Input
Amino acid sequence: MGSSGWQWHDKKLGIQIKRVEAQLPALRKVSENKEYASLVTITENGNYRGFVFFNEACEEGSIVSERVTYNQTEQPKLEVLHCLHGKLVYMKTWTSVPAIKWRGRVGNFEFDEDLNEWDFTPLQQAYLKSVAELI
Output
């Protein structure tokens, strides 16, 4: 989505929106310390796709990974940051609106975003419009 062309969606919360012709829109928020930006889109099949871009240059194809144990009853899970467009990025997909506090840590990279405060209406409207059929 790039760093240009973003407009305010909710200035009070620091959430921006970007609309690109022939694509579904995206919402993003840059962290207060500017160490990362959280971005959420909606896919062509209606899933929500989250990205956290860290302000850290990297070489395409490189990854950062770490095994993380969430509690004593779960098996350790491999968490991964990929290098995408020269920045380290964490990715996640949800089947419904991500009304959660999204946080994570991989190596020295941490993020914490209150997605439950975001208004996903523009993404939902664009998705419904893209799949609507005239009868």
